[in-house]
């Protein structure tokens, strides 16, 4: 390093936080260009007279904040604006999008039957942040699936991702470790990364989060665990009763680790609910969003958590500032207690299960191993790198989602596609199954050649 190097000259500090802050200041004011390499760990540690681990920790903090990226032997580089994978349509594509992760718009319940009665009362500053009717209904909804006698309080947030972000923020500090399923739901992955926390991957199999993976994560010092008990996204796995009991046994020795269960599919799920939250666990939260069965624009989730966690969460949702609209809360309550809407939700649940099962059968007929899980998507293993298969599908008019977008460390995900097919007609489903078989063969042949 040159003493005249502005990067070298601008880095100060004797702790990881101080070094990270000085580098952050350089990056934010343009003193370091995108793509520039940070000083090697050993060289910077020698100049600052600190331990190498201190510099490594500073670089890790910056990486967790998305400001730098590690390239192994290529060094640590200043990161530029980077596209973050999100759910939803690829709006700039002319291809048939089979990677959206969306519910079927035609199965979202209509709002107009219940709207006329909702606007007759004005809510003022200082009133309770949770609508009384919604609170009563949601209390019974949550109590039915939590261990008997477990105390909890309700919180209403602007969707499940909002709840998880707030739960982690009131529990963790930057660089704390969080156990995430691997492969992982995009929103959870992004929430942890943008929050500056460290994601510790826990493998997922057909019964959900694995016991050995959770044990390893706890041994690594995670302070929070985010789990999807049903319809895990992207795999579709759901916790079995046996697996949930085994996970509860592991967590029994870690009662103060925050366990967040994201039961996003809830009323649409075809699988029974099995919780990893034991009756003596001290810090927990069960989060249920309405976005899958009432529509993504219904940005509302209900969280049942232990009283201490609920108190901390409520402090971030103060009356008069950022409560969830009572109109939205009353609309949610009106819909979930409406007989026609509940019948429509049951119809949608049957539709998703049947269409995914039918498409899985088509794939098996084409020699592709596929089994429907629970949820809106299919997780399909292919006999060639998934990105190569996706490229072949693009040539045939399809836009698929490769599994490596959901990966934390599981290399097997690179051989998976996540497909959203429940809204395809029978003719389109047949064509996609045939095209996928051809695409796998073409990608495998190209790799072999």
Automatic annotation (TrEMBL):
GO terms for molecular function: transaminase activity. Residues 13-81 form the HTH gntR-type domain. SMART domains: HTH_GNTR. The keyword Protein biosynthesis does not apply. Pfam families: Aminotran_1_2 (PF00155), GntR (PF00392). CDD domains: WHTH_GntR (cd07377). InterPro entries: Aminotransferase_I/II_large, HTH_trans_reg/aminotransferase, PyrdxlP-dep_Trfase, PyrdxlP-dep_Trfase_major, Tscrpt_reg_HTH_GntR, WH-like_DNA-bd_sf, WH_DNA-bd_sf. It comes from the Bacteria. Keywords: Aminotransferase, DNA-binding, Pyridoxal phosphate, Transcription, Transcription regulation, Transferase. In the C-terminal section; belongs to the class-I pyridoxal-phosphate-dependent aminotransferase family. This is Aminotransferase class I/II-fold pyridoxal phosphate-dependent enzyme. It comes from Microbacterium memoriense.
């Amino acid at each position: 390093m040159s003493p005249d190097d502005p990067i070298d000259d601008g880095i100060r500090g004797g702790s990881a936080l101080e070094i990270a802050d000085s580098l952050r200041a350089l990056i934010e004011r343009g003193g370091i260009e995108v793509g520039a390499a940070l000083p090697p760990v050993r060289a910077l540690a020698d100049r600052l007279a600190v331990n190498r681990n201190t510099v490594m920790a500073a670089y890790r903090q910056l990486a967790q904040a998305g400001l730098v990226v590690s390239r192994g032997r290529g060094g640590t580089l200043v990161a530029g604006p980077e596209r973050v994978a999100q759910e939803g349509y690829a709006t700039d594509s002319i291809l048939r999008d089979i990677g959206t992760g969306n519910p079927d718009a035609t199965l979202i319940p209509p709002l107009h039957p219940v709207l006329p009665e909702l606007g007759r009362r004005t809510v003022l500053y200082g009133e309770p942040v949770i609508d009384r009717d919604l609170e009563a209904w949601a209390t019974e909804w949550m109590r039915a699936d939590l261990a008997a006698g477990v105390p909890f309080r309700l919180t209403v947030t602007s969707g499940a991702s909002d709840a998880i972000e707030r739960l982690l923020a009131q529990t963790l500090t930057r660089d704390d470790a969080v156990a995430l399923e691997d492969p992982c739901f995009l929103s959870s992955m992004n929430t942890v990364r943008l929050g500056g926390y460290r994601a510790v991957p826990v493998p997922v199999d057909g019964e959900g989060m694995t016991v050995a993976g959770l044990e390893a994560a706890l041994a690594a010092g995670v302070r929070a665990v985010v789990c999807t008990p049903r319809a895990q996204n992207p795999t579709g796995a759901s916790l079995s009763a046996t697996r949930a009991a085994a996970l509860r046994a592991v967590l029994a020795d870690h009662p103060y680790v925050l366990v967040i269960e994201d039961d996003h599919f809830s009323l649409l799920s075809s699988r029974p609910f099995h919780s990893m939250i034991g009756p003596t666990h001290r810090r927990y939260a069960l989060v249920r969003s309405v976005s899958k069965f009432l529509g993504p624009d219904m940005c509302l989730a209900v969280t049942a958590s232990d009283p201490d966690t609920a108190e901390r969460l409520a402090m971030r949702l103060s009356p008069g500032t950022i409560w969830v609209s009572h109109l939205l809360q009353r609309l949610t309550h009106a819909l979930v207690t409406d007989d026609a809407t509940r019948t429509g939700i049951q119809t949608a649940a049957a539709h998703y299960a049947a269409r995914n099962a039918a498409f899985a059968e088509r794939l098996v007929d084409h020699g592709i191993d596929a089994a429907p899980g629970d949820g809106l998507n299919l997780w399909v293993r292919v006999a060639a790198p998934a990105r190569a298969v996706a490229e072949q599908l693009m040539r045939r008019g399809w836009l698929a989602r490769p599994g490596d977008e959901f990966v934390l460390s599981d290399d097997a995900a690179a051989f998976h596609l996540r497909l959203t097919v429940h809204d395809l007609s029978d003719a389109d489903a047949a064509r996609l199954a045939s095209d996928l078989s051809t695409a796998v063969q073409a990608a495998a042949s190209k790799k072999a050649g």
